[in-house]
Design brief:
Glutaredoxin; four-stranded antiparallel beta sheet
Length: 263
């Protein structure tokens, strides 16, 4: 508001000099009549003055022709100045509206939640994704190898893995341990490009949590999975809060996650 007033005040100060304290016994503008008028200044569109009851300004276009002539009223110049003023007002209102909206977004529950999650330091330096702090894609696979899990409203860790991936097999025991230790706090879901038969024929340790077969990689693509294994943590509100390798998580971070998810 201060920035907006400065140009108007500067213009008025310039006009004060031009006004030279002209006195008028009575001044009529539209339906208003002012007495004991002392002109403070004027510009292309307005006359500024004190009167018996205070201080005011009126549009030059509302004055009698004789007074308009005294103050150099030019209808074309005044109309152009008023158009510019209207444009400036419109731009100011739009900028103010954008600022208010931006402030509202910064103070929204979703923004505060994102900030709280960010402060946990859940990041994988080897992984960057546009999904962080955005709504997660629907967890839809071609086939669930067992009962279809219900992840709605639950803290969920989606683990993308494959039987032919050595890194996946290496990470699997830790994820199985989390599934056992945090069964009431964290829903872990496995998603693999393998078929049900390939999973069943795997010789080494298998996931001890629900598994979905995604042979066409639709969910992996939707969740921006670029390498295996990859974990996507989804909070109870459905927002992605971590995206990266399981090794970037540990029990300490998981405890902090549980505390925040419970708020």
């Amino acid at each position: 508001m201060i920035c907006r007033l400065i140009p108007a005040l500067a213009a008025l100060l310039l006009a004060l000099t031009a006004g030279a304290q002209k006195q008028i016994a009575a001044l009529s503008a539209g339906t208003q009549t002012y007495s004991n008028v002392v002109v403070l200044g004027f510009n292309t569109t307005d006359l500024y003055f004190t009167h018996a009851k205070g201080i005011a300004n009126v549009k030059l276009k509302l004055l009698e022709p004789a007074l308009q002539a005294q103050f150099g009223y030019d209808p074309a110049a005044a109309a152009q100045a008023e158009r510019k003023q209207a444009e400036d007002e419109s731009r100011y209102a739009a900028a103010l509206s954008r600022a208010v909206e931006a402030e509202a977004r910064r103070n929204s529950p979703a923004a505060r939640a994102s900030q709280a999650w960010a402060e946990l330091g859940l990041s994988d330096p080897l992984d960057e994704t546009f999904l962080l702090n955005h709504p997660a894609p629907e967890i839809a696979v071609e086939k669930w190898l067992g009962a279809k899990p219900d992840a709605k409203g639950r803290l969920t860790l989606v683990v993308f893995w494959a039987t032919g991936s050595l890194a996946s097999r290496t990470a699997l025991p830790q994820v199985n341990a989390w599934n056992k230790a945090y069964a009431g706090k964290l829903l872990i879901l496995g998603v693999t490009p393998d078929t049900e038969r390939e999973v069943a024929q795997a010789d080494e340790a298998k996931p001890e949590f629900p598994i979905g077969s995604d042979p066409r990689g639709k969910l992996a693509a939707a969740m921006a999975v670029r390498s295996l294994p990859c974990c996507v943590l989804i909070d109870p509100a459905g927002y992605v809060r971590f995206h990266g390798h399981p090794a970037a998580l540990d029990d300490k971070k998981l405890q902090a996650i549980f505390a925040l998810a419970a708020e």
